[in-house]
Amino acid sequence: MAQSHNPVLCLASVSPRRRELLSQIGVPYVVAGANIDEAPVAGESPRSYVARLARQKALAVRLGGQSLPVLAADTTVVLDGELFGKPADRADAIRMLQRLSGQAHEVLTAVALADDRGVAERLSLSSVRLRRLTEEECAAYWETGEPRDKAGGYAIQGLGAVFVEALQGSYSGVMGLPLFETAELLSRAGIPCWYGVLR
Fold first, then answer.
1. Is the pTM of this model over 0.85?
2. Is residue 3 situated within a structural domain?
């Protein structure tokens, strides 16, 4: 889908998961990575944090000269007010997974669409419970390579699925692009879903 000759959208992400999800709903797009500072601001709430990053990513690409509407998203994992982003290294990944072990945590994904009218945003909030994990399991999971670029150090759509005991909310939101909220934003901008599959 990303190689469509008639793209109607720019996805401000190089994430294979977000590309796969956008293709799933039949929207032809091009990709442009957004390079922004993702450090939290002191006193910023998790919801404000993900919304700000999604907005900044969309605007960075749009103001960089992209004429198509620009879609961006950001995901973070939250437990007891602590943000769990991508693990810095093996020790950090194991620490994250041990903290999340046996607990229900929040997964927040904000999605933003920047076009001629400005920026519109939506927020997806899900609750995920991981079963109890041993340190050995966490270390073995790190060795698969999967946790390295995942918020919270796990992938619900990958090998990490075996850790997920329960999910309330949006599966696609936990993956990184909530499709219900994305479709709402696209509809407001006059961009139809299923564009690439309807005859």
1. yes
2. no
